[in-house]
Task: inverse folding
């Protein structure tokens, strides 16, 4: 009973208040107590097909609402809606928070869910407490797939340059030009290491790392295995290749077989020289450790991609007094090999090893191509440093790789 | 953890640990278990995690076998008459079978085809990706933060460090230079480069010591707390 | 057939993947992902060959009663145990869910073995530093000092030793500087060298100049 | 000059059996576990920044915890996970756990059990704690979360739809998350969280890393990354600053001993090497 009465009284008062307010409005006087909430809209909303991508994406940009720039309290952010005609209907697809002091005047949103070929309009609405106002993009925009990623133009030039440099030196080496290659200590020692194993009548172990054939270091390691096993065939030493990946096992067998064949000792080859232990990193390390202490090889090669097992293997090898020659392009594992092995091929030297050991002009030519790459990079760093430091040009930006 | 499980774990742990003293039957046992179990683990994992979802599901073989409800390419094409791009995974299946043909000595050479595919893929992917992230992007990283002349911090510790990094990178690269003897200017630069590389090796080694020690602490904690219950 | 076609396959696939890097358009854009799936499939079939080899080598030892043949028998039995449990008794593709027999073997047998093997590194780090860090010549001395500073700088001991010095001479500060400046420079030089080496190796593989992985005729 | 006797001893030291070194390492790590030593662990600015940011969060804040590691990094990162969950429980944070590594979700459940035992009470699942499990896709998962968290993780670790739970009400993307805490042992990890969640979606991020990983993270500290705890030392500092001293502080004693032993060995080896240099030619390096 009382409740109804109260509601009635309230209603009357509300009516009165509203009509007073309306009168006030008509008379053109502002009302201090009840300003209707408003928000300034964003401006210059534009949409365009996101460039250099595989389609299905449109980028929307707009100038921030003046309220956002002025950091008016109660300003929330922006809602992005999408439709296929400028009149709507629009469907909300996402939101963007209000900007901060440091943000630029333009804001952007990436719509990653478009159908290529369909024309879209976008509505960008500024949102504040109780108020919304928006701007619509003026033209229908369609997304499409690009045939060339212009963001990668610097990479394209770099790739073409490197490939041509290497090809040039390969062809000039083929034509009979003499190429000088400096000594690489670890590789000079290969002969001696294989020879020592032969003299002692002990085995040689070759460990091609713990990664599979989808790592180029493993492949580089296996090309070195080719040269090493050729030597063992010539010296009539025995080589064991325990591996941790089945594909590596298959490849290593091809490699060793070919080496024995070309050394003229095909009958000395058996498949048992290459055997699989386990795919597991540490299971493999446990297995190799066992093999090392039981068979006491005179020489151990570690060539390929290694992780934490590097030191476990190299220290065990060291404990039985084997000559150890390691090579890897895993920067984090290099210190351990350097500490525990007699010789270590550092990074790039791993990839140069097969060319170096083969003495084939074509392969040596490719090393010369790498060296040209080095000169260019050193020059870029020195010149770039001067240009950058003197504030002439933002040289570094030439080398920014889009998309990481 | 059940008590039995802890005992199994502790015994195997001690088996591996005993290797430090010398090779012994206890270690040989742990090693044999490790080899068998881990090889089996990867064998099973690759089957369920690679072969089944990537080959059998995509083609629809799992549905034919009644292991899965979802349609694959086979159902899409032969039941619904729609082209399904997953049918291309058929080639991967063939490449896999070619691999297994190694077991037949006469035609074992055909396994070189999938091998060549793998090597080609690896070479193609690595060429551009490494050139981008390890070479081109590193030039950008070495240059980008340098404070420009005229700004208040131009002569500062920060800029000195950036300069030092550029010296280190260029001289370090000279060390890797193959087609010239390390004499004269090249030799001098390479010599400085070697010092940078030596610092790198020493520092990385020293840095890793800490986490390697923590690993052992973790194992000892397991032995003393969970197994022997010496530590509350 | 034995060598020619594989060389063509490697060359074509490699070239396409190099080009693919620059082309977002289908089918190039997705080629990398698709091929990496294909690699997984080839890898998952190839492991059958590895497993058979493991059984063959171990089986040989058992059959011929070679030295330590008992342990080879354990290898085979453990392998079969894991495979049978994983294929038939652990809920198919949800084989790693908590509580399945497979995951119990994983937790109680496999995990402790991995963890302990990994932890052996602590000991080897000790013995390696004892042997390797000697001030034999100038280069080795530099390596030694860098390792020394960083090793001490990472534990409270380092700052306790240098606490009386001005802030910038604290071992932790110096060790951070070593990590962020000379170490970074050295790492970068190594990384750039590796990139060039990889470009050249990949190119040799794509061109078929490096072909030892294919074996002979 | 050293007498013949000391020289002989030093020669012996050079060729010392590695097993003696092993024993010393073992003792150095074992003994501190049984005795309690009060060690003064100075705190570093990066961990102080981490804790300050956590302190500034309101009680009951929504926090996303991403555990991106596996059991092999457990000794370094698990204590941090436990400390954070205990701290979160005290502050009544609402915790949403995910993993970019497959084992992350399991590690979270283990840390949760420890936190609950420590505090003597339990998280109410679905109200102030939820485990969304693992999704494959590395940084793409973060990208997907940027547009919609429920779409990136439609079901929780135990297979139930996430929108059933009150904790997920109103959680759409990073704008509904007050703070992201990431523990990382490599890729994908803190770098990806910085590049995508922070740079792209404006999240506030704090992180813990393994000692091996931490140096690569330093460059992001400050604007992009609000604090970093590196390795066991970082973990210990985190415990000290949150007044929740536990495992990491305890482990830190052993860690310090071990480093001291190794440093001592290097010194001994070098003294022995120099004193006997003329009688023995260089070593292995």
Result:
């Amino acid at each position: 009973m009382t409740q109804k009465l109260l509601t009635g009284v309230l209603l009357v008062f509300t009516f009165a208040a509203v009509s007073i307010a309306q009168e006030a409005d008509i008379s053109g006087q502002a009302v201090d107590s009840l300003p209707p909430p408003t928000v300034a809209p964003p401006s210059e909303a534009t949409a365009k097909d996101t460039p250099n991508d595989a389609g299905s994406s449109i980028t929307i940009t707009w100038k921030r609402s003046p309220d956002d720039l002025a950091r008016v309290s109660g300003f929330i952010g922006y809602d992005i809606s999408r439709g296929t005609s400028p009149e709507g209907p629009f469907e909300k697809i996402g939101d963007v928070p209000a900007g901060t002091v440091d943000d630029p005047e333009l804001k952007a949103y990436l719509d990653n869910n478009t159908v290529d070929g369909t024309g879209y309009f976008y509505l960008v609405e500024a949102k504040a407490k109780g108020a919304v106002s928006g701007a619509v993009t003026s033209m229908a925009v369609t997304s499409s797939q690009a045939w060339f990623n212009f963001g990668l133009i610097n990479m394209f030039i770099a790739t073409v340059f490197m490939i041509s440099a290497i090809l040039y030196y390969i062809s000039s080496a083929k034509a009979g030009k003499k190429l000088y290659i400096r000594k690489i200590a670890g590789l000079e020692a290969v002969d001696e290491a294989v020879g020592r194993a032969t003299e002692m009548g002990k085995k040689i172990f070759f460990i091609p790392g713990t990664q599979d054939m989808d790592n180029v270091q493993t492949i580089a390691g296996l090309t070195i295995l080719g040269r090493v096993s050729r030597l063992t065939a010539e010296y009539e030493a025995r080589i064991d290749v325990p591996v941790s990946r089945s594909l590596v096992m298959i490849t290593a067998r091809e490699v060793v077989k070919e080496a024995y064949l070309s050394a003229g000792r095909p009958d000395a080859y058996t498949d048992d020289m290459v055997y699989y232990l386990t795919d597991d990193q540490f299971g493999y390390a446990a297995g190799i450790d066992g093999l090392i202490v039981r068979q006491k090889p005179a020489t151990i090669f570690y060539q390929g991609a290694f992780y934490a097992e590097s030191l476990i293997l190299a220290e065990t090898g060291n404990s039985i007094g084997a000559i150890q020659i390691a090579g890897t392009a895993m920067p984090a594992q290099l210190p351990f090999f350097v500490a525990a092995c007699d010789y270590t091929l550092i990074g790039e030297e791993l990839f140069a090893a097969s060319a170096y050991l083969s003495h084939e002009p074509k392969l040596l030519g490719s090393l010369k191509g790498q060296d040209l790459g080095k000169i260019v990079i050193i020059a870029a760093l020195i010149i770039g440093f001067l240009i950058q430091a003197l504030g002439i040009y933002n040289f570094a930006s030439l080398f920014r790789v889009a998309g990481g | 953890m059940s008590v039995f499980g802890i005992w199994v774990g502790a015994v195997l742990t001690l088996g591996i640990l005993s290797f430090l003293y010398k090779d012994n039957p206890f270690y040989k046992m742990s090693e044999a278990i490790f080899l068998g179990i881990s090889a089996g683990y990867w064998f099973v994992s690759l089957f369920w995690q690679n072969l089944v979802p990537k080959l059998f599901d995509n083609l629809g073989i799992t549905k034919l076998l009644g292991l899965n409800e979802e349609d694959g390419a086979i159902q899409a094409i032969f039941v619904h008459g729609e082209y399904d791009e997953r049918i291309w995974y058929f080639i991967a299946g063939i490449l896999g079978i070619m691999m297994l043909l190694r077991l037949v000595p006469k035609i074992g050479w055909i396994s070189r085809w999938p091998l060549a595919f793998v090597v080609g893929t690896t070479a193609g992917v690595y060429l551009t990706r490494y050139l981008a992230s390890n070479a081109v992007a590193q030039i950008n990283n070495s240059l980008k933060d340098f404070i420009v002349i005229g700004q208040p911090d131009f002569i500062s510790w920060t800029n000195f460090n950036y300069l030092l990094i550029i010296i280190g990178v260029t001289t370090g690269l000279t060390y890797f230079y193959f087609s010239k003897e390390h004499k004269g200017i090249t030799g001098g630069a390479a010599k400085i480069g070697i010092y940078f590389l030596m610092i790198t090796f020493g520092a990385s080694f020293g840095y890793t010591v800490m986490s390697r020690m923590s690993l052992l602490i973790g194992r000892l904690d397991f032995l003393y707390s969970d197994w022997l219950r010496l530590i509350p | 057939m034995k060598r020619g076609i594989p060389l063509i396959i490697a060359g074509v696939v490699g070239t396409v993947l190099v080009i693919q890097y620059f082309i977002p358009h289908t089918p190039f854009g997705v080629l990398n992902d698709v091929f990496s799936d294909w690699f997984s499939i080839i890898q998952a079939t190839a492991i059958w060959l590895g497993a058979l080899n493991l059984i063959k080598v171990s089986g040989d030892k058992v059959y011929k009663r070679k030295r330590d043949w008992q342990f080879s028998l354990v290898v085979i039995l453990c392998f079969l145990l894991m495979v049978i449990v994983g294929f038939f008794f652990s809920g198919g593709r949800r084989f790693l869910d908590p509580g399945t027999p497979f995951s119990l073997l994983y937790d109680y047998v496999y995990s402790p073995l991995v963890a302990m093997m990994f932890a052996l590194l602590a000991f080897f780090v000790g013995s390696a530093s004892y042997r390797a860090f000697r001030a034999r010549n100038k280069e080795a001395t530099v390596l030694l000092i860098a390792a020394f500073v960083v090793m001490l700088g990472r534990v409270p001991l380092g700052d306790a030793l240098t606490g009386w010095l001005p802030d910038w001479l604290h071992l932790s500060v110096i060790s951070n500087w070593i990590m962020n400046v000379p170490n970074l420079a050295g790492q970068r030089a190594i990384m750039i060298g590796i990139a060039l080496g990889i470009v050249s190796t990949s190119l040799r593989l794509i061109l078929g100049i490096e072909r030892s992985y294919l074996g002979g005729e | 000059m050293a007498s013949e006797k000391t020289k002989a001893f030093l020669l012996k030291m050079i060729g010392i059996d590695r097993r003696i070194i092993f024993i010393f390492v073992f003792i150095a790590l074992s003994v501190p576990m049984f005795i309690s030593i009060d060690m003064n662990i100075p705190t570093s600015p990066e961990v102080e920044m981490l804790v300050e940011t956590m302190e500034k969060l309101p009680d009951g804040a929504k926090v996303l915890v991403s555990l991106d590691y596996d059991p092999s990094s457990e000794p370094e990162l698990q204590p941090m996970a436990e400390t954070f969950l205990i701290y979160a429980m005290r502050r009544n944070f609402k915790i949403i756990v995910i993993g970019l590594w497959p084992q992350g979700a399991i590690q979270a459940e283990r840390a949760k059990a420890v936190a609950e035992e420590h505090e003597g009470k339990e998280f109410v699942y679905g109200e102030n704690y939820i485990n969304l499990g693992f999704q494959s896709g590395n940084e793409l998962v973060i990208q997907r979360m940027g547009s919609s968290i429920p779409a990136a993780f439609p079901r929780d670790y135990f297979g139930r739809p996430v929108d059933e739970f009150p904790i997920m009400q109103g959680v759409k993307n990073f704008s509904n998350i007050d703070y992201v805490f990431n523990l990382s042992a490599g890729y994908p990890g803190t770098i990806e969280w910085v590049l995508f969640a922070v740079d792209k979606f404006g999240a506030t991020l704090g992180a813990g890393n393994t000692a091996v990983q931490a140096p690569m993270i330093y460059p992001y500290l400050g604007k992009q990354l609000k604090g970093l705890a590196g390795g066991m030392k970082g973990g210990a500092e985190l415990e000290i600053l949150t007044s929740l001293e536990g495992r990491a502080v305890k482990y830190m004693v052993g860690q310090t001993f071990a480093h001291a032993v190794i440093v001592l060995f290097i010194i001994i080896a070098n003294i022995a090497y120099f004193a006997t240099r003329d009688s023995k030619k260089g070593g292995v390096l």
